[in-house]
Design brief:
Length: about 260
Amino acid sequence: MIAEFNVAHIIWLTNLRAAMEFRVAFVMQIVGMMINDCAFLALWILFFQIMGNVNGWGGQQIFALLGMNLMCYGFAFGFAGGSLWMPRYVEQGTFDSFLLSPRNLYIRTIASHFDLAGLGDAILGVILIIVYAVMTGSALSLVWFAALLPATTILFLSVSVICSTAAFYLPDSNHTMMAMFKTFMNPAVYPSALFPKVARFVFIFIIPSLTVGGLPVEAVMSHSFLTLGLVWLIAAIWLLISIAVFYGSVRRYESGNFVGLRG
């Protein structure tokens, strides 16, 4: 397994160096994504200024929520963007090259694509988490976020892999995959305090949207080891599910070779 991650590390470095060949475009994409995310943050801050705190959530918690979401998204798809590119690989027939590789198929597939915009998300996410720690005067919260980030990133990747396996069952599945992923992603950017108990249960255990954003923030706010353990447990379960679904779906794959004529 260490050898597999070493290979993935080489792929990440190669993709990063290729992206940095065009330095101006590299910087502009990162900065542009950060500006777009700041606009979303401003809307939530305005909301809480008008409405006041909601069940203990206010402007400070929005920094933490958006920061956690951006870090998950950025690290997951910045370095493992192949999880969302799987439908293209299957439809274009390039998935064959992964099957021929002697490396671990799961890791090789998700590490195959580097999303430059995701790097901007990750950088802004780290900045927002630091701002939250400064605003609350709690340097310990940085330790809590560091303990939660691997679990939420794994969960992010696991759900995206499961959504992408639609490519093995449906033709032209890219839109279907994105619709499934947005169903998971949309509730994650909302404060968990806004959801009633039934919805919280659904979006924590069945569609684990709040486990990516709201639940980790609650763990940091309350310093709850129970909530921390719950996030890691859910992430581990979904990782195992994603691996099982991925390899089960690959068995349905038929070579995507194309036959054509050249004039």
